[in-house]
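Human:
Focus on the backbone:
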Amino acid sequence: MLFYIHVVYIHALLSHLSSDMGSKINLLLQDWPPHIVGTQRWLNSKGIDFRLADKYVRSGWLNRFGHSAYVRAGSTVDWPGAVHALQKQLGLDVHPGAITAFDLRGYAHYLALGGREVVLFAKAKTKLPSWFSNHQWSQPVRLVTSGIFTDDENTVSTVKVEDVELSVATLERAAFEMMYLVPKQQSFEEALQVMESLTSLRPRVVQRLLETCRSVKTKRLFMYAAERLNHPWLDDLSLSRVDFGTGKRTIHPGGHLDKKYDLVVADTNYP
């Protein structure tokens, strides 16, 4: 009789555990968009430790995506769903920037797309998890770490990329980031092409970025390009408040010297 009661108790306990495990995975999948990486930190916040996550893998609910990372079984995840996890689950200050931000915001439709490098910007010394760095995404991804601004508040905003919401550099910030990468990682001619379309930048934001940008070369090159293109928002800037540093900056050896900004830049027919 005691043996029977013991068996019934164990059966009831296992049924309860199985039911609890099933309800947790159901709740998890309801909160988990199919194209986003799920980190172990995020799973922990949902009450699912690594042991339970391992059970879900063995049960076919989840697939491993690297160390401390998972994806829903049957789903495909590309770099946008991974960057979303970096931003929202791990709280990393990383965002698509420079030319990639223009691509995502529809400002680079006339430029070379399809497999071009994705540029991510992050604070200096930022390290990405191995599951992100070691994965082969549909496009090459490059991380640029820099403390380019002393104040970068409100210089990213949300963009939906392949049904995934990402924090992406604003047009103003992306323009500075693009100039920061000239000439080694970004061609100046392409940067001018993009800058030509930026006729409605917000002067107040541009002013703050000019004042808080630590890179003298970036500030000078940004202003050189904007004045060359004669953008209307230039009239609302106060350049007397901007520190443009001293000394010549050579962007392209052998180019011509722009005396106003003391920049040596390449001769180009554009615009």
